Amino acid sequence: xxxxxxxxxxxxxxxxxxxxxTACGSESGTSASSQNVGATAPAGGIAGVGSGYGSVGAGxxxxxxxxxxxxxxxxxxxxxELAISANGQLGKILTDSAGKTLYRFDADTAEPPKSNCDGxxxxxxxxxxxxxxxxxxxxxxxxxxEVTRTDGSKQLTVGGWPAYYYAKDxxxxxxxxxxxxxxxxxxxxxxxxxxxxxxxxxxSEASLPGLSVRKDANLGEIVVDKNGMTVYRFLKDKAWPExxxxxxxACLEKWPAVAPVEFNETEGIQKKGYMNFTRGDGTKQQTxxxxxxxTFSGDKAPGDINGQGVGGTWYAVAPNGKLxxxxxQ
Length: 329
Prior knowledge:
By secondary structure, the protein is of the alpha+beta class. It has helices spanning 2-23, 119-124, 250-254, and strands at residues 81-87, 91-95, 103-105, 109-110, 113-114, 134-135, 144-148, 154-158, 161-162, 184-186, 211-216, 220-225, 232-234, 276-278, 284-288, 291-292, 314-316. Helices cover 10% and strands 19% of the residues.
């Protein structure tokens, strides 16, 4: 009996270890999204009125960088007749009938249209309803479409990109959401990112993969995101037996979490341990070799490495997920 009990105990332990190893360290890619996305099609053409913004307050507590949450978030709000507005910094931008700026999110996709902003993200970035939309002067109606969100509501798309408002835009003409987290940009009339005169945070359609490798003169090979911004790891996070982020609240505002990126959208990144996980706030975050990854709000342009070594806990990431330039652990 003792021998049998011991054998069973050892077998159970082996199964447990195998399960943990599989949870983080397997070669499975980013998990597929469960969102129900509809095909792009011209939205209804009824000229609407409405406020075009809804009742979302500016004091939303969600991180402005967005991400996929567990809830459905704010109800989509109508925009009425879309218009083209001239902005001194951004040029021509798309606005609703009340003059509110419309935005797009880099973590979304346009082909096929897909929104990756739910839950708390959708409270900070309310989706624009596809109902009662019409195209104003100079807007190509064929670029307007819709996508079905997780709550079944229809969201406006422009050139395939889901459209949003920003809760901190207090009045018509505000563009405070431009460049937030290096992921949110005002919509140009053709669905592309609005381009600022200074060029800050407003590159035209990104030519880089979702994640790739850059050779830095000081750090060697480091990972960058689709905008060329340096990617970092936090020493206080955990990777095994499953990823855990210990960067929340104010920390997350300073160090935006990298949203999920499909492995086939990367270049030069190690596949083993490449996965995403659900954070404590319900949003999804990408990992490399099971370690959560972030960008740094203090990096203002591609190539910046201002986050390197901050607090002795933040370091750039090598293609295999290891810390670059960190002291031996």
